[in-house]
Amino acid sequence: TSAGQSPGALMVRVLADQAGVVNVFDATAGPEALADAKSFVVVIGASMKGLGAAGIDVEDEIARVESLLEKAEELGIPVVALHVEGGARRGATSDDLSRLVFPYADYAVVRANGNDDGFFTDLASRYGVTLETVEKTVDVAAVLRTLYGN
Q1: Model confidence, pTM
Q2: Strand partners, 111
Q3: Residue 54 and residue 39: Cα distance in Å, rounded?
Q4: Do 108 and 137 form a contact (C-beta atoms < 8 A)?
């Protein structure tokens, strides 16, 4: 799902399909969507346009994502965090969503030019998250292929 309703979540879905990773995409999923999940992939990136199109305000999006993360923790489902749109998708709201997601994450993939300031490196270190960086968004497909054994 998306954390922030940016186009990055749909990009990750396409890349997962290309990598042969079975997935269910729902940009506005609620905790019930995790009932049969083997992992929870959350793509971080706030888009005011995307939030508006989905009819969601920032506070509602934060609450939705938090409820998903809490449900994943309750069910023992591994959380994979991605920030794939680079520096262009960094900003106060995206960073707040990252701070929300990383304490729950087991693994994270971020685009290198979105981590120029070490923000994701610091979060990963603070919360014991395995962090992988990629140069281009398309490189996420190979990471997913490896991560999911395809």
Answers
A1: 0.94
A2: 134
A3: 24
A4: no
CA angle 134–128–113, rounded 5-degree value: 25
What are φ and ψ of residue 85, in 5° steps? Answer: -100, 10
- Cα(33)–Cα(36) distance, integer angstroms: 8
Phi, psi angle pair for 100, to nearest 5°: -70, -45
Q: Based on the number of CB atoms within 10 Å of its own CB, is 149 exposed (0-12), middle (13-18) or buried (19 or more)?
A: exposed
Minimal CA–CA distance to 110: which of 83, 146, 141?
83
Distances (CA, A) of 87 to 29, 46, 127, 134: 26, 12, 22, 13
- Residue stretches of the chain with pLDDT short of 50: none
